[in-house]
Amino acid sequence: MTQEEQMTPKEIVSQLDNYIVGQDEAKKSVSIALRNRYRRLQLDPQMQEDITPKNLLMIGPTGVGKTEIARRLAKIVDAPFVKVEATKFTEVGYVGGDVNSMVRDLVENSVQMEKKIQFRNVRREAEKKANQDLAEIISREENHVDDAQEKSNNDKKLQDTVKELNKAFKKGKPMDLSWLNEKDPFMDQNEKDKIKDDSGRILAQIENGELEDREVKISIDDPSAALNADNSKMEQMGINLQGLENMLPKKQVERVLPLKEAREALINQESETLIDDAKVNGAAIKRAENTGIIFIDEIDKLTGGNKQTRGEVSREGVQRDILPIVEGVNVNTKYGVINTNHILFIGSGAFADSKPSDLIPELQGRFPIRVELNDLSKDDFVKILTEPSDALIKQYVALIGTDNIKVTFTKEAIEKIADIAYSVNHDTDNIGARRLHTILEKLLEDILYEGPDMHMGDITINQKYVEDKVGNLAADENVARYIL
Asked: Coiled-coil regions in this chain (predicted)?
């Protein structure tokens, strides 16, 4: 159990406050749901099985922080997380997304997280091996060993060895072939010794960081040649294509890279051979089962708020397909079978043309915690622009700063941007905080375009600048609707 997974609800909310403005009730609810998962794991195994997560349903317009709360929550506690659009799924028997794919995606995410942990554990050993390989590659290059010519010579010598073996077999005499297991068995011993000696010298240079920018030619596994093991139909039938992929010979491709990049490529390749796939897969499935979070966006679109047209796939049918997964079911994946009993599901939707009670009763019951997120006010927009760790103003100042231009926003300018965002949202479609992105892009368009060619050190964005650039656009509702 990591320190992040043991965080209290107040600590979780405090972390969320660094990135998300307002929405205190939603933060409180998700922090309690997360803490309850830790509490469950402290109980005896029998009681653990009886306690299921209290799934959440977030209700609110777009751009108010529903997705961001869930995404940040997963990052804070280092949990597997996947976001899916409810509208991409279709009822069983129709062409379209299979609802089980959300669980398979979660497991895939969990496996990658687990691999990163295992890679860190074996990195020192993998780096040592990678440096040795690089030293030998450079040594062979300096000794003018042509690998293609060497292979051709080896093939000829191997044919000669086979002929000698046949002669010995006919005469009934044994022949020692253990030397064939050695590296470069047909290479002259003096040449081998020279390469070995030079490799030791070069290895010392590599470890001292003296050859980081030297280009080397390496052979690595070709990822594009891997067997496509993402066939969901195969997975549903319990056929593990990953095992078949491991049995097939891997295609190698040659790359010429700076040594520091070549080292990373070889470390990744070597790490794959050092870790235990079965151990990784088992730990990943356990992690996904106990800490996984699936965020189902636009769940309100599965209701019958709008009249269904003839021939349209049943929305209620999709709800009924999702229901067993939320209730708890075993799902086949290429990494093994996962049980969804204790995965936390977070449903999200605006419910502008419908209401939560329009969902089928069984699905409603599986989302017992309802959280309504509030529309953003002018003050909220000001806070979003300035307070979070990744505030938009900070992002744009940093981006423009790469062109050696220092941009400063006055307090009045920020308040004016917030006022315009609020007004445009109110007068046109309400897209929440996303409106700030469009306004800032339009506001800073000239600076972003001309920045690399400008020789001005400092630029101050004041209220007048904001009014000149976007104020008039916001005043015209028709223009604002299409530009802002």
From this structure: 131-168
- By C-alpha distance, which of 338, 326, 334, 235 is closest to 290? 338
Do 148 and 290 belong together in one domain?
Answer: no
Does residue 136 form part of some domain?
Answer: yes
Distances from the Cα of 240 to the Cα of 104, 223, 440, angstroms: 13, 19, 49
**3-class SS at 363?**
helix
What does the alpha-carbon distance between residue 213 and residue 219 come to, in Å, rounded to a whole number?
18
Confirm whether 329 is domain-assigned. yes
Clarify whether residues 264 and 140 are in a common domain: yes
What's the full length of the chain, in residues? Answer: 484
C-beta atoms surrounding 33 within 10 Å: 20
* 19-49 confidence digits (pLDDT tens): 888 889 999 999 998 888 889 889 998 888 8
Residue 482: how many CA atoms within 13 Å on its side-chain side?
3
Task: Write out the two tokens for 261.
Answer: 């990049």
User: Per the confidence metrics, is the pTM higher than 0.85?
Assistant: no
Structure tokens belonging to residue 33: 């749901």
Q: How far, in Å, are 59, 78, 106, 262 from residue 74 at the CA level?
A: 19, 6, 12, 33
393-451 pLDDT tens trace: 999 999 999 888 899 999 999 999 999 999 988 888 888 898 999 999 999 999 999 88
Any residues with CB less than 8 A from the CB of 55 and at least 6 apart, and which?
33, 326, 344, 345, 346, 347, 366, 367, 368, 369
